[in-house]
Write a structure and sequence with these properties.
about 425 residues, globular, single chain, 5-stranded antiparallel β-sheet, Neuraminidase, about 5% helix, about 45% strand, mainly beta
Length: about 425
């Protein structure tokens, strides 16, 4: 397949200066139908507190392009007196059902107000679709069922934003974060610790019928996150998490129990964060046979915690999955959206140099794996501000390697 020219289509555009604004992209590809679902928040202004409801555009991949339908409001994904935020979709392949997770937050209650007061105003909700996003079920509120009394120790929480994943085991995983605090009683007075942010996962092992949540990450510095499953050639599943921080670089963590627990996050110095951080996206894919050389490099520099978990023989096995990551590349501003590739996901510091996918203001993004070497990226961008529009682009694996300066390498029996 010859590399194609990267084309960009604006799917959502701000209406006037400071008017209706679309933010927080989430992208899902449905393989059997070759359908893309592009979600965003519709807001009455740029502010988080002015979020209204979610909107959707359905696209059909035809040859080397996508034909997009008109914007559609998702009014079934609403609760009276709440605003709908943080779309996080996942495709369940056995039931052929789309689950769209999101949070509903009490109108005009800011995240900072929840953190300062310790009083959560968010609800964990989802809707589902069995016809590739043409129609949606009534909303279901899972807060009491899934979080229960623990929510009293969560100042606030959110899912994603971006996509969830279905693992080889069929487990559905929705990435999330919570601001957790401890409360204790002493001499007639109640005290509360300062809430700290921890990433975590919501998951289902029965095709979405019931849901649970995993353990909070050990380090209280990670917030918005996405996950991708990496399979080495021994068939061992490792769940990779990329998480937002305010520490000028990205955090990553690994799980060997399908997302219930993660090793302590480590910081990736070559993946920059702007001040206060920014959401980013990560996906895993199995490289095509034509993209690979016959010889594969051995893995020899796993993080110590992962080596001890996998064992010495498994730790030297080359992975059969690569990672692709999108995020603004500057340490100072949300500008210059970059696409990175990692051909050895279980090694430390193996990210490529970024392909500058969009020059200028850029913010949140979401990646999707299509088929036959194609990728999609839905991202915030603009000329003066990153929230002026949400755009979509297609690109190929060959373009990715060409622009990141990576050579093709990997196990020759991977298809």
């Amino acid at each position: 397949m010859e590399p194609s020219r990267c084309s960009t289509t604006t799917l959502f555009r701000q209406e006037g200066v400071g008017g209706i604004t679309y933010r927080i992209p989430a992208l899902l590809y449905i393989p059997p139908a070759r359908v893309l679902l592009a979600f965003a928040e519709k807001r009455s202004s740029v502010d988080d507190t002015d979020a209204l409801y979610l909107v959707l555009r359905r696209g059909e991949k035809v040859d080397h392009s996508v034909q997009w339908g008109p914007p559609e409001p998702l009014m079934s994904a609403t609760l009276p007196g709440f605003r709908t935020m943080n779309p996080c979709p996942v495709w369940e392949r056995k039931s052929r059902r789309v689950f769209l997770f999101f949070i509903c937050v009490r109108n005009h209650v800011t995240e900072q107000r929840q953190i300062c007061s310790g009083k959560n105003a968010a609800r964990l909700c989802f809707v589902s679709s069995s016809d590739h996003g043409r129609s949606w079920s009534p909303i279901k509120d899972l807060t009491d069922e899934v979080i229960g009394e623990e929510v009293e120790h969560w100042a606030t929480f959110a899912v994603g934003p971006g996509h969830g994943v279905q693992l080889q085991s069929d487990r559905l995983v929705i990435p999330a974060y919570a601001y957790h605090f401890s409360r204790w009683h002493c001499l007639g007075t109640f005290f509360r610790s300062r809430p700290r942010s921890h990433s975590l996962m919501f998951y289902s092992d029965d095709l979405g019928a019931t849901w649970k949540h995993g353990q909070l990450f050990q380090s209280g510095v990670t917030t918005e996150c996405e996950v991708a499953e990496v399979m080495n050639s021994n068939g061992l599943s490792v769940l990779y998490c990329s998480a937002r921080t305010s520490g000028r670089c990205r955090a990553e963590a690994f799980s060997t129990d399908l997302g219930e627990h993660f090793e302590k996050p480590s910081f990736v110095q070559e993946l920059h964060e702007p001040p206060h951080g920014c959401q980013g996206s990560v996906v895993s894919f199995r490289p095509r046979r034509g993209l690979l050389q016959e010889e594969a490099p051995a893995i020899s520099s796993h993080p110590k915690s992962l080596v001890s978990t996998l064992g010495p023989e498994q730790s030297l096995t080359p992975p059969s999955s690569w990672l692709v990551y999108s995020h603004p590349t500057s340490r100072r501003h949300r500008i210059n959206l970059g696409i990175y590739v990692n051909q050895a996901p279980l090694e430390a510091a193996r990210w490529s140099q970024p392909w500058i996918f969009h020059r200028g203001p850029s913010g949140y993004s979401d990646l999707a794996i299509l088929e036959e070497g194609w990728f999609g990226c839905l991202f915030e961008c603009g000329e003066k501000h990153e929230y002026e529009q949400i755009a979509f682009s297609l690109f190929t694996d060959q373009e990715l390697l060409s622009h990141t300066g990576e050579k093709c390498s990997g196990p020759s029996n991977v298809q």
